[in-house]
Design goal:
22 helices, alpha+beta, five-stranded antiparallel β-sheet
């Protein structure tokens, strides 16, 4: 301290009247506010690395000469371990955002303005700051390279991943790291990369103007890295809608200094977000797990949530790394804490942590659950010798069924080494028939219970099947009930064959809603709102559809957005519906129906048996559960009707798609040459279809923008595309202004039919 005081006196000619230690966070440097006898103050810094101190002082002087908002360097010690800088005050952006952060990410207008002003100032630092900069003065290196990236990725591996005890293949992971390092270094950019651009490193003056500190780790690199560092800072808990807003502010500011390719920027940003998350998890692991620093331990849960969201959005293009990270975020210690919530009906359920449940999770793609969340069913098989499975939900143990009254294949030598998942055991049980009679009663009871749980918004239901060894009858019964519930209700089902050590998950039913269209036939309404929010019978079209989907067991919904995209996202944020909503962002270019599915493929490819696609402007009485059940296992199934139109799809006697025709013009389109439309059944497409992700492999030959019917016609001679006719189907396309009053009457009639 005495050496620092001498440096102060030598620089100012004043004695030090008072010294105040300034608390640090992750840095090894120590900072002091030093007050002189004239009342003025400077900040004294004591570091352990001469090179790091030198880098900061060089960069600060360079940036100050460029007119950038940084502290002024007043003096440096001869040994390079101490320096004095101007005092920027006590208010950091991190402190100024405390209220919104503690409110789970609900930032007020003033806080949002501070964020906009800060990120708008970043491009000047990156681009103007790089002009004339001697990058060789940077510490510890002058540019981001593959060695640097691999260092940080291995920092994550050794300081975080290995600390969790998760098993992984070293060589496969290293191969993923090598690919990732190559791709990150290939991102275009020769800007100054701040590297640790976060709210803690931004100071605010009395007018709220941002000043930047702690940039000594900067180097040449891509601009996207700093955006990722700032907006995905774990403890900040920025809602995704706010992130998207700030990205737009940043890009607008960046355009003052260079041309911007928005698509290329976002591709690089997604990769930098992945890299940054792994990098900070490495730091959190070391500083938290090993140094036991509270701030870093508290940052782990929100960082894991960000990683979970990124994986769900297809943000990791490296298959084995994706597999490892998915296993990581699925570990029990990283699951969001659940707290009991007292409901109006007197029942208790659970709510996720505030940062996860916050309704402002938004756009490009986002996921959000409301307080009750979607139903998850867990089905177990077990041996009575080892006890009934433990309930971990805290809601009670659910149903336990005793399978021991049915014929036991385990008594016979050919089946002793097999389980209820093996074909010989399945044939034995089904040929005998006792297990089928047993399950008929179970299905009726389970169906009624699942249906009621969905109606009441409950989140957890458990079924357990026990037999003597937990190997044959219980395994068969548990597997079949799980598949039955998933097929009928579309909910997420977890299966655990306890004694076999086999676990699997049947993913929740997923739907893509087409809501990106311009709605030109509904002008002038759609001059001020998207078609999806046009009201019918007091509710937006989107609300009618989401309620129908929810009632049919769908809990995962992807909505594509383009026209007034922000309004759709805001509406979804303000109207939680016990569903996970994800957005496929088509703001830059409307991609039509086929291009929309292709663009959203990363959000849909894990829908194991397929996913529903539904136009937002279609009202109908279609039984979605029956439709989905008919479509499972098929490449695609299209809802069709015999209504009058000019354009028809053509189907053979097995209801397989063979072509398309316009009866007014005589035009015919088909992959089969010389097709005669008179020999086939004509049906009109109803705007509802069910697709298996295996069709995604055919997307590569198509451009970004194309129609889905064009796609089906192209592949129908390679993959069977089926039509589905529902007897008594009533359907209405709300496409024109003069149909709105008719649509209101239609909604009332459908509602009355459902109630009767």
């Amino acid at each position: 301290m005495e050496a620092l005081k001498q440096l102060y006196k030598g620089a100012t000619g004043l004695d030090v009247l008072d010294v105040e230690a300034i608390p640090g966070a992750g840095s090894n440097r120590k900072y002091y506010r030093m007050k002189g006898t004239d009342g003025s103050t400077l900040i004294g810094a004591v570091g352990t690395s001469r090179d790091e101190n030198h880098a900061f002082c060089y960069l600060a002087k360079h940036f100050a000469e460029a007119g950038l908002p940084v502290p002024q360097i007043v003096a440096e010690s001869a040994d390079g371990l101490r320096y004095l800088q101007s005092d920027l005050g006590n208010v950091s952006l991190f402190e100024a955002l405390k209220g919104g952060r503690e409110a789970g990410g609900r930032y007020n207008a003033h806080e949002r303005d501070l964020l906009r002003r800060t990120i708008a100032a970043l491009p000047a630092m990156q681009i103007r700051g790089a002009l004339g900069l001697d990058f060789s003065q940077c510490y510890p290196q002058e540019a981001l390279d593959e060695t640097n990236v691999l260092f940080d990725l291995n920092y994550f591996k050794y300081c975080f991943l290995k600390a969790t005890g998760l098993d992984f293949h070293e060589l496969k992971l290293e191969a993923s790291f090598q690919l990732m390092a190559r791709d990150i270094v290939s991102i275009p950019g020769g800007a100054f990369m701040y590297r640790d651009f976060q709210a803690r490193n931004v100071m605010l003056d009395a007018q709220g103007n941002p000043f930047f500190i702690d940039f000594q780790g900067g180097r040449r690199g891509p601009v996207q890295y700093d955006v990722a560092s700032f907006l995905w800072q774990a403890s900040a808990r920025y809602p995704k809608a706010l992130r998207e807003e700030l990205i737009k502010v940043y890009l607008q500011s960046l355009k003052q200094y260079q041309e911007v390719n928005s698509k290329q920027f976002r591709q690089g940003l997604q990769l930098c977000v992945l890299f940054r998350l792994l990098q900070v998890l490495g730091a959190y692991g070391f500083r938290g797990y090993f140094e036991r620093k509270k701030h870093f331990l508290e940052s782990i849960p929100p960082a894991m949530e960000s990683l979970r969201d990124l994986l769900a959005e297809g943000g990791c293009p490296y298959p084995y790394l994706h597999e490892v990270l998915h296993a990581l975020v699925s570990m029990p210690q990283f699951q969001p804490e659940q707290k009991p919530v007292e409901r109006a009906d007197g029942y208790k359920t659970t709510a996720l942590n505030p940062y996860q449940a916050h309704p402002e999770d938004g756009p490009a793609t986002f996921s959000r659950y409301d307080a009750q969340g979607p139903l998850v069913v867990r089905v177990f098989s077990f041996s009575y010798r080892k006890g009934i499975p433990e309930d971990t939900s805290g809601n009670g143990g659910g149903y336990v069924f005793d399978c021991r009254s049915t014929h036991n294949p385990g008594r016979y030598e050919p089946y002793k080494q097999l389980t209820g998942l093996d074909e010989p055991v399945i044939r034995f049980l089904e040929d005998d028939g006792e297990i089928l009679t047993f399950l008929d009663s179970v299905y009726k009871l389970a169906d009624a219970h699942v249906r009621r749980y969905l109606q009441r918004g409950f989140t957890s239901l458990m079924f357990s099947f026990g037999c003597t060894g937990g190997q044959h009858r219980s395994v068969y019964s548990a597997q079949h009930l799980a598949e039955h519930i998933h097929r009928k209700f579309g909910v997420e089902v977890h299966i655990c064959h306890r004694e076999q050590g086999i676990e699997s998950v049947l993913a929740p039913a997923r739907c893509m809603v087409f809501a990106a269209g311009l709605g030109t036939r509904l002008k002038p309404l759609t001059d001020t709102m998207p078609k999806a929010l046009v009201p019918v019978a007091g509710k937006p079209l989107l609300e009618h559809l989401l309620q129908k989907l929810k009632g049919s067991g769908f809990s995962d919904v992807v909505i594509n957005v383009h026209h007034f995209a922000d309004m759709i996202e805001d509406w979804c944020q303000q109207h939680p519906m016990q569903m996970r909503i994800m957005f496929s962002d088509e703001r830059e270019k409307l991609l039509e129906t086929g291009g929309g599915v292709k663009h959203a493929a990363p959000l849909l490819r894990d829908a194991q048996d397929g996913f529903l696609i539904h136009n937002v402007d279609i009202l109908s009485n279609v039984d979605l559960r029956a439709f989905v059940e008919a479509g499972q296992g098929r490449a695609a199934t299209l809802l069709v009707s015999s209504r009058q139109t000019q354009r028809y799809l053509l189907f053979d006697d097995d209801m397989r798609l063979v072509g398309w025709t316009n009866v007014a013009t005589g035009e015919v389109r088909s992959p089969y040459p010389n097709l005669n439309p008179k020999l086939y059944h004509k049906y009109a497409f109803a705007g509802v279809h069910y697709m298996n992700p295996r069709l995604f492999s055919y997307f590569s030959k198509f451009p970004d923008k194309f129609g889905i019917i064009d796609f089906y016609l192209d592949v129908c001679n390679k993959e069977p595309i089926y039509g589905y006719v529902q007897p008594g189907l009533r359907l209405m396309d709300v496409g024109k202004l003069d149909t709105l009053s008719e649509a209101e009457a239609f909604v009332r009639e459908i509602k009355q039919e459902g109630a009767s």
